[in-house]
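User: My collaborator sent over this chain with a note saying "see what the structure looks like." That's all I know about it. Can you take a look?
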Amino acid sequence: RLRRHCGRRFGAVDAMTPRIYQAKTTDTAKVIRRELAAAFPNTQFSVRSRTRGTDAIDVEWVDGPTSDRVMAIVGCYQHGDFDGMTDSYTYHGGKMIDGLEHGVRWLQTQRSMSEAAETRFMALIMQYRGDLDGKPDYEIANLAWREFVRWDGCKDDLPATTSDLPSARDW
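Assistant: Without extra context I'll predict from the sequence alone. Here is the result:
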């Protein structure tokens, strides 16, 4: 049963060290999808595995929780980190579940903004900052994105006034 569900098997260092069985990338994606659904039941997540050439998982969602909150849940499934200074990958292992190590080498999260959120944030930024008339849309969209990144769609409704913006709470 164990071999059938395993993608790879790492050899033992010596006779006393047990082998570590690695779960398939698709099975790890299923586990991540279940954990995210339990933590954020009102947010639809897309969890996709990429297995051609590398083992990676992409997690995408619209509005919902901040990227930091999602990464706090899924970050333990990344095997390690890439160090650009030494051009090396440092392994620290994945998450052990029922004797299988669930993890991938690359884990990417991407939060997107819905049209309703974009419209609301852009209108509030223009209202708050009186100096944006005649500015290109990409500048206003950049300021709206900065507010959106700090907004937690699971905890708060879309801001209705400029005082509801995430940066207004820090003033």
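A starting point for your reply to your collaborator: The CA atoms of residues 45 and 61 lie 5 Å apart.
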